[in-house]
Write a structure and sequence with these properties.
By secondary structure, this protein is of the alpha/beta class. Helices cover 29% and strands 21% of the residues. The termini are far apart. Bound molecules: NADP nicotinamide-adenine-dinucleotide phosphate.
Length: 280
């Protein structure tokens, strides 16, 4: 995909731009947007968020936003060098394994410091009826039974695994219109989270759902369906996370922020220069 760059809150011609440290946020998650909003308020930083471009009309993070793949590790390495990036923050989705490993390799090669964030996974609570499976393919095999009414909210990239499921009935929820064939017996709803417990409970009950297939994404934005399933005693086929070699990841955004501050304060190459405001 061709990459594009737009600026929301920070201007490319901001007078402080040439003096600031340039931070690349690998984004596409709520946490990445929160972090971009927080960091963009600082005059000493230029914040660039990178989105994969999977979602049409995404909520745009504050700061500069570029969209589309870099072109593998080599492309990312070149980008870090050409754009004079001082630090990379990996706040990508827990299932986005490729971009995280590319970030590790590219940062090692360019010696650009990397701060990784990993949203904690959900864990089963009393009353939960979870079957944990290693991948979406296994989930598709498991639920494809004529007695099952399955709620699928795994993202449209993964729907292709269910295209050939002819036995079960599916309620499919995606943000944008899927581009792959849907299972023969299915109903589609287009909707963007966060989703609330009352709505989720009603939806599962109205559609007489017997099973949910969910990725173990963690976080609050999509957890309501898991809570509703617990209340309604619905089985959840929980797809485990791919193993991602993130080095020493932070588990909340405050920790990421603090680690960046430490990095900026302690790293000789990243010492903060006085900004227009601090000089006064
Ligand atoms: P991926 O497998 O890690 O990445 C595939 C390629 O997409 C990367 O190699 C990279 O292309 C590009 N890419 C991914 N994230 C990028 C970013 N933030 N900025 C620029 N390029 C990026 O991730 P995925 O294919 O997007 O998704 C894998 C799983 O994660 C799916 O289950 C999906 O539902 C879930 N997920 C992803 C996102 C997201 O924003 N990516 C959000 C929610 C859920 P190049 O190699 O060309 O650089």
């Amino acid at each position: 995909m061709k990459s594009e760059e737009v600026t929301t809150m920070q201007s490319a011609t901001h007078p402080a731009l040439n003096r600031t440290h340039r931070v690349l946020i690998l984004g596409g998650t709520g946490e990445a947007s929160q972090l971009a909003a927080r960091l963009s308020e600082r005059l000493d930083l230029t914040v660039i968020s990178s989105l994969a471009g999977r979602v049409e009309q995404p909520a745009m993070p504050a700061g500069i936003v570029r969209t589309g793949g870099f072109g593998g590790v080599l492309g990312l390495t070149e980008y870090l060098t050409m754009q004079r990036i001082d630090a990379v923050i990996d706040t990508t989705h827990p299932f986005a394994a490729k971009i995280s490993s590319h970030a590790e390799l590219a940062c090692k090669q360019t010696r650009v410091p990397l701060i990784a964030f990993e949203r904690p996974a959900w864990t089963p609570q009393p009353g939960d009826r979870w079957v944990q499976v290693p991948d979406v393919e296994s989930a598709a095999v498991l639920v494809n039974d004529p007695n099952n009414r399955v709620f699928l909210s795994v993202g449209r990239q993964e729907l292709t695994r269910f295209s050939e499921c002819r036995n079960a009935w599916f309620l499919i929820r995606t943000i944008n219109q899927p581009t792959v064939p849907l299972p023969q017996k299915s109903k589609l709803i287009l909707s963007r989270g966060p989703f609330h417990l009352d709505e989720e409970r009603l939806l599962l009950w109205q559609e007489a759902i017997t099973h949910i297939v969910s990725k173990n994404s963690g976080g609050a934005a999509t957890y309501a369906k898991i809570q509703a399933a617990r209340e309604l005693e619905i089985e959840v086929i929980m797809v485990e996370r791919p193993s991602i070699a993130r080095t020493n990841p932070c588990t909340d955004i405050d920790e990421v922020y603090l680690r960046l501050e430490e990095l900026l304060a302690g790293h000789p190459a990243l010492q903060l220069e006085p900004t227009e405001t601090t000089r006064l």
